[in-house]
Amino acid sequence: QVQLVESGGGLVQPGGSLRLSCAVSGWPFSTNWMHWVRQAPGEGLEWVSTVYTGGTAAYSASVKGRFTASRDNAKSTLYLQMSNLKSEDTAVYYCSTDPKGMQRGQGTEVTVSS
Predict the structure, then answer these.
(1) Which of 15, 31, 47, 109 has its CA 20 to 30 A from that of 95?
(2) Which residues, listed in sequence order, are joined to residue 39 by a DSSP beta bridge?
(3) Minimal CA–CA distance to 20: which of 113, 114, 103, 104?
(4) How far apart are the C-alpha atoms of 12 and 114, rounded to whole Å?
């Protein structure tokens, strides 16, 4: 059974940084692309990033240049380093086995506020 467990969320001031982690089990992590999606309050799921098997990543326009996604295939763990956070980054962040978030974890909440 697939398990995705996100951690690392919290309250941060605008301009601050956070690092999210996602531990994955029951899934062929090293041979599959992995994804980060998020859901802002009252909104639908939004794709944030895709990390390819070799470690390179693609980003949505809204986070490109501020977020860095990475993976450790030996640990089956996905990461999202978020910098220069803005209030509009406030959301629940999920790691997912697909870019639409159909199979995702329970999420970790990120609140950007002063």
Answers:
(1) 15
(2) 45, 92
(3) 104
(4) 8
